[in-house]
Structures are given as C-alpha cells and as structure tokens.
Design goal:
By secondary structure, the chain is α+β, with helices and mostly antiparallel strands. Helices cover 19% and strands 22% of the residues. The chain has helices at residues 229-240, 246-250, 288-301, 312-325, 356-368, 380-383, 396-407, 423-426, 452-466, 514-521, and strands spanning 4-9, 23-24, 34-39, 43-48, 51-53, 65-69, 73-75, 79-86, 183-188, 203-204, 208-209, 213-219, 255-263, 276-284, 334-340, 371-378, 447-449, 470-472, 475-477, 485-488, 491-493, 501-503, 509-512, 527-531, 542-544. Mean pLDDT is 73; it is low at 1-198.
C-alpha cells in the first residue's frame, strides 16, 4: 500500500484496517518518560523516549486527546489539530535528528521522495528527502509557555502538501521527524490564550463527624421509685453525674434531649394528651446543665403513695412526632434511648399490663419517621414481670427484644394467639404493630441492668453506637468509590469491608465500619480521606461540593 496523504482530522476517520503511526518527539521535556495518548476511546498510542507507534483497526480519532505520564498526569480539553501521515508494512527507522539551525523557512516538496523543505528560522532543518505527507521540524512555544525544541524560539514552520500549520497564542508541539511520514500535534488553547492545560489531581477531603441527636426517654411511673435508690437515683447518677455521667462526657459530640413520662391512673382515649404527663427538654449540644435542672426537679417532686402508670406506646408516639419535626443543622441521625422498669399498659386499659402491641407499633412508626430506638430494662421488667402473663403476651425481656427489633427495623416476633383477645388489643380494633410471618425475628441488641456497673456499661455501649462513625465530606463522589483512600492513623481501611468503610447513598458521606470505627472512637487517630483521578478515564473521582 502506498503512502497516504496527511489530512486534518477532527472527528474524521482513518480507514485502513491496520495503521502504523510513527514519529519522533521534538520535546526534550518528554524524554525518558512513558506516555500514552488516547485518541477517542478506541485508539491507544504509546510513547517512550523519542518514538511512538500503535496499531488500531479502523480507528476513530476524536477531538479530545488525553495524555498520561508516569509521574505527571494532565488532561487536555481544548481543541487539538492532528495531522497524520500513514505508512504500511515498512520497518520503522528513526534517523538521526538534524539539530543544525536553518535559514528562512520554505515549502517542502510534494512529490514522492521530493526534497525536504527548510524549516522556519531557528527551527530544525528538514534533513532527508521528505515523503509525501512529511513535515519539516518546526520550533514553537509549549502551551505552558516553555520553548520547544532545542534551539531558539522559532517562527512559523511549513508543511508538505495536504497538511497545514496553525499557530495559537500558546505555540505548538512538533512531533515530525526528517524524511519520513510523521505526525504533528498542535495544541490550540481555548480562547487563543496561552496557558497550561487543566490538571486532574488527587483530591484531599475535609471530613466532619455527623452529629447524632438522642432523646433520652425515662419511665417516670411510680414503680421507678420502688425502691428509689436502686432505680431512679441510680439511673440519674449514671446519666447526669458531672464527673462520671455519660451525658456530660458526650455532650459536645451528641445532641441530647430529655423526656420523662408517667401515665394517669384514670382511663383516657389512646390519643388524649391527658393519658400521660410528659416533661421534656429540647435537644441541643452542650445540654447537660439544662437537662440536669429538669431531671433533678422530677426526682424531688415525687410523692409516695401516688400511682402512676406506664403507657409507653402513647408516650413514644408523642415524643417521636416532635423529634421528627426537629431539623438539626447540619442534619444527623435521630434516636430515642428508652429506659423503663415495667411492662406497658395502654391509656384505656391500666391492668393487666397488656400494652405491648401499642408500644411496638409506636416504635415501628418512629423508625418509619427516621428515628431509631434503643432500649434498656431495669427493675421489675427484668426480674418479676408484675401484671403480665407470659402465656398470653410477650412479657419482660421478650418485650424488650421486640422493642429493640422494632427500633432497628428488624422483624418482630408475633405474640401468642391468645393475645389478640386482650382488651388492650380489641379496644384498638385489633393488632396495630407489624409482626414476622415467614421470616425469622430480629436479634437487635437490648440491655438490662441490675447493678450500677451494669447500667453504666449498658448506657455507654448504646451511646457509643450512636456516637457517629459517619462523616460529611466537602466533596461528592462521582466516579468509582473503590479508588478512594481512607486511613485511620497509619492504618489504611478497605472499601466495602465489614471492618472498613462504605460510601453512603448520598455520595458525600463516608461511614467507618467495625474495627475501623472502633479504632477511630478511641480518639487517638486522625481520619484521612482522599480521592485520586481515575487512571482509566483521567477524570476526577470526586469533585468539590
């Protein structure tokens, strides 16, 4: 096959089944580096040292060229002019480059094997006779402003028949070499102004922990004071002691609120606010003092001999509705931490204590509103189950398990068949909660405590679960998240691993999992996150929000 005349290629095609390009690089800046030029998505051209060549079946050359280096990576989005002269089958030779300065530039011959034309002043001379499509060497200015070639800054060069030269304000790169068909690539910066091409570089992230909101809900029924020292006072100290309490220790990391509830000893409709007296403190950071003032007053206001009930479902419904309307800034997860000592009743049926279905339904509804629930049982619900018949309903720790499952969105075990005939159920028109049918019930953790040490440990463990291992990032991930680099201290964390990290569905939050989360929670290690350029596309994996 004879030589093919060079032509300007924008979005055109080079049609031969097998094409070989070869050229000699005219830039000392590219020496000793391996480069790959991708023309469109179907042509890969490798450059090493001073020559470059490749084969591609019927390749299509697009208008965008991406150039990659071992240590330097840059992406060109501006317009390119590509001139190619193609030859087939002949062994490639790379004759020595003539480095002598030439005189005034001229036009090269157009016939096969014609005499080479002289380059522009200060450029490289033509050398050997040029084949059709050959171009003489030409100096030029690198787009970044550096001088091309090895001589002085050159003027405008010339090309053989079928080609053309364009000189932008930023100059040009000449990849031609003496006496053979070659390729010339000219970068013309957009807008005609000189300057470096845009750079795709690694992006470091500024992570900020997501702050959770926790409403502490305390059962304030009369049984919480029977005996007072082992129940009410112990719980108050565990939560609120300024030296050892968990609220004081975490008030800068967690938005805390507080609510207590006690049910009337008179029956009311389930939605009537008179069913339960609720005392609350709004959620906020650094809220220990405000909560302590209200919580301590509740303890001093208790009067022996008065009977107060435990309508847990009614209380959770009201508290969750208010918590759902609370919009923290910045947003974060919301939780209820329920501490109770007794099996629940309903607003209409005070005894027996058959309000389990209403309580589970309220916690499931809270979960649908985006509010998780954790539960701790103390006192009677752990040891005696007063007022609850296990053969007819799920009492005690079984009910705590049901609440824990409901609070995490897991399946809840169905009650005994006899339960549906209890007045607590029939007066509400049937079962209100959703129960497991074919699937296995969940196994969400719940906590019980019969000593001060157990109570403190239970609350600390629960609050550690909500102390966030999710982080807001100042970037949005648009590429392959698996290319991200996440480390805790000096330990790199694997992607999508139970002890690693995951990208949340909003694509701007990262969550540490398992061992990685525990390591971060020690407070001794810094979290570092970065996203590189995708080596396959040259595009950034993440961009600033």
């Amino acid at each position: 096959m004879g030589a093919i005349k060079p032509r300007r290629l924008g979005s055109g095609k080079v049609e031969p089944d097998s094409i070989r390009w070869s050229a000699r690089l005219g830039l000392s800046a590219l020496r000793d580096r391996e480069w790959k030029i991708r023309l469109s998505n179907r042509v890969a051209v490798s450059l090493n040292g001073y020559g470059w060549s490749s084969r591609a079946p019927k390749a299509t050359l697009g208008r965008t060229m991406r150039v990659f280096g071992r240590s330097t990576r840059w992406l060109v989005n501006s317009s390119w002019l590509v001139l190619l002269a193609c030859s087939s089958g002949a062994p490639e030779r790379h004759p020595p480059r003539n480095t002598e300065p030439s005189g005034t530039g001229g036009v090269s011959g157009t016939g096969s094997g014609g005499a080479g034309g002289n380059a522009a002043t200060s450029g490289d001379s033509g050398g050997s006779p040029a084949e059709t499509g050959g171009t003489p060497g030409a100096g030029g200015m690198d787009p970044a402003g550096g001088s091309a070639g090895e001589g002085s800054p050159a003027g405008t060069g010339a090309t053989s028949s079928g080609g053309s030269t364009e000189t932008g304000a930023g100059g040009r790169r000449d990849f031609s070499y003496d006496g053979r068909g070659g390729a010339q690539v000219i970068l013309k910066p957009e807008g005609g102004s000189a300057g470096a091409a845009p750079i795709c570089s690694e992006l470091s992230v500024v992570p900020k922990p997501v702050v959770p909101s926790v409403m502490i809900v305390v059962d304030n029924s009369s049984s919480m004071f029977e005996p007072r020292a082992e129940l009410w006072d112990r719980l108050y100290t565990t939560l609120m002691d300024p030296g050892t309490g968990v609220v004081k220790a975490l008030e800068e990391q967690v938005r805390f609120g507080f609510a207590s509830f006690k049910g009337s000893n008179q029956p009311y409709p389930e939605t009537d606010p008179r069913c339960a007296e609720i005392t609350s403190v709004d959620i906020d950071l650094n809220n220990h003092a405000a909560i302590d003032a209200v919580y301590a007053e509740l303890g001093t206001a208790w009067m022996p001999g008065l009977k107060w009930e435990t309508p847990t479902g009614h209380a959770i419904t009201r508290i969750a509705a208010e918590l759902a309307e609370y919009m923290p800034d910045p947003p974060g997860p919301k939780y209820i931490l329920l501490v109770t000592d007794g099996n629940p009743n309903t607003c209409q049926i005070l005894d027996p204590q058959c309000g389990q279905d209403a309580s589970v339904a309220a916690v499931q509804k809270a979960y649908e509103l985006g509010i998780g629930t954790f539960v701790i049982g103390i006192g009677d619900i752990v040891t005696m189950n007063t007022g609850c018949v296990p053969q007819q309903m799920r009492c005690g720790v079984a009910h705590l398990q049901d609440l824990a499952n409901a609070g995490t969105g897991q399946p809840v075990e169905a009650p005994p068949n006899e339960y549906q005939f209890q007045q607590c159920v029939t007066m509400l028109g049937g079962l209100q909660a959703t129960y497991a049918t074919t699937e296995e019930p969940g196994t969400a953790p719940y906590f019980t405590a019969t000593s001060a040490e157990e109570l403190k440990l239970a609350i600390e463990n629960l609050l550690k679960q909500v102390a966030s291992c999710t982080f807001d990032m100042d970037v949005e991930v648009r590429g392959r998240a698996s290319l991200g680099q996440v480390s805790v201290g000096n330990q790199q964390v694997p992607y999508n691993d139970p002890d690693g990290w995951r990208l949340e569905s909003n694509r701007y939050q990262v969550t540490l999992l398992g061992a990685a989360c525990e390591l971060f929670r020690t407070g001794e290690h810094e979290l570092k996150i970065s996203f590189p350029c995708d080596p396959d596309t040259g595009e950034p994996v993440a961009v600033k929000r």
